[in-house]
């Protein structure tokens, strides 16, 4: 890993004071686990066995799909998930991935249908509330998103990530009230969690530089820095968007994607965020041309 002395906000005409110039922390992108590659090969062999039942084949397709997803091969994963559902249409975990992929592709109606199917098959599948809430949030249905994300938060009220996604949906409805509620949720969080700093970022209790510096503290395993930076840069990008700085947000989302932490929610939706920023810029340009 290395520190790159770069401004988060682009070019400046004069050097900023040292304490106002946060440095970008870079980590080695997450590498594919060789055991995962071996598992993919074995599952490919198992799927060639001719006398598998539909249930067995569907399960192996799902198992291979989640491993494709973990290494970023999402098109192959999506193919496996769709084939699994054709063989066994009562697998809520598969519908959950189908909904996530539909959200990433901004196919929101398909995403809602998939998450509805998850909850019809298994009402206790709590992550369907998160994923449907995110789909509703990106699909410009903040009221419904708040309902789902509140249900998800109530299952674990001290989770910083659950509080943040609820906050993003609530900001669309009432920014001041959203911040008050986020502060209330913050009071129930464990101070020892690094992720509490993400909440503090949106409450104005910590800076981007302080958040990035804290990401290096207390690391316990290989790859953990990449995971933290995936999250940190995504939420710094969200903050930049909320503050009306889309250019800065785009650069931060790119940094989040560069970590290769494919399974994280933040990595999944960084590209979608970038698409929204680009579409907003294009719409703004077209509006100006028409004047």
From TrEMBL:
Repeat in keyword set: yes
Coiled coil: none
Cellular location(s): Cell membrane
Start-end of each TPR repeat: 92-125
Keywords on record: Cell membrane, Lipoprotein, Membrane, Palmitate, Repeat, Signal, TPR repeat
InterPro entries to which the protein is assigned, alphabetical: Lipoprotein_NlpI, TPR-like_helical_dom_sf, TPR_rpt, Ycf3
UniProt keyword Cell membrane present: yes
Record Gene3D superfamilies: Tetratricopeptide repeat domain
Self-association state and partner proteins as the record states: Homodimer.
Biological role: May be involved in cell division.
This protein's name: Lipoprotein NlpI
Species name: Ferrimonas gelatinilytica
């Amino acid at each position: 890993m290395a520190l790159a002395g770069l401004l988060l906000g682009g070019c400046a005409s004069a050097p900023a004071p040292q304490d106002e110039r946060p440095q970008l922390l870079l980590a080695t992108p997450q590498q594919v686990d060789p055991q995962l590659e071996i598992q993919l090969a074995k599952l490919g062999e198992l799927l060639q066995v001719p006398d598998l039942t539909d249930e067995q084949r569907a399960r192996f397709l799902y198992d291979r799909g989640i491993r494709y997803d973990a290494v970023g091969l999402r098109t192959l994963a999506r193919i496996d998930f769709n084939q699994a559902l054709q063989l066994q249409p009562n697998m809520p975990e598969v519908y959950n991935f189908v909904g996530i992929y539909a959200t990433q592709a901004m196919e929101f109606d398909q995403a809602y249908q998939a998450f509805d199917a998850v909850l019809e098959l298994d009402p206790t599948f709590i992550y369907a509330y998160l994923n449907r809430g995110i789909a509703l949030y990106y699909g410009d249905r903040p009221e419904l998103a708040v309902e789902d994300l509140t249900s998800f938060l109530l299952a674990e009220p001290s989770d910083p990530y659950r509080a943040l996604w609820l906050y993003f949906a609530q900001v669309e409805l009432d920014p001041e009230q959203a911040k008050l509620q986020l502060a209330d949720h913050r009071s129930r969080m464990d101070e020892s969690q690094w992720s509490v700093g993400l909440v503090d970022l949106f409450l104005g209790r910590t800076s981007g530089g302080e958040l990035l510096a804290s990401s290096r503290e207390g690391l316990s395993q290989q790859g953990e820095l990449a995971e933290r930076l995936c999250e940190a840069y995504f939420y710094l990008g969200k903050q930049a968007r909320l503050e009306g700085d889309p250019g800065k947000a785009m650069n931060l989302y790119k940094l989040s994607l560069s970590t290769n932490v494919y399974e994280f929610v933040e990595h999944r939706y960084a590209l979608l965020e970038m698409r929204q920023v680009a579409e907003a810029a294009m719409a703004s340009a077209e509006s100006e041309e028409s004047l």
